[in-house]
Fold this protein.
Amino acid sequence: MDYGNWIALLAIFANLIISIIKTRKAHPEDE
């Protein structure tokens, strides 16, 4: 098992989650 691939996948996944959280905090009352 290549750990480099796992780290890359985890980094992309974490980036996605952080982006979603930032977007929600940018305008929480905009619904």
Notes: The chain has a mean pLDDT of 87. Residues 3-26 form the longest helix (24 residues). The CA atoms of residues 12 and 18 lie 10 Å apart. Helices lie at 3-26.
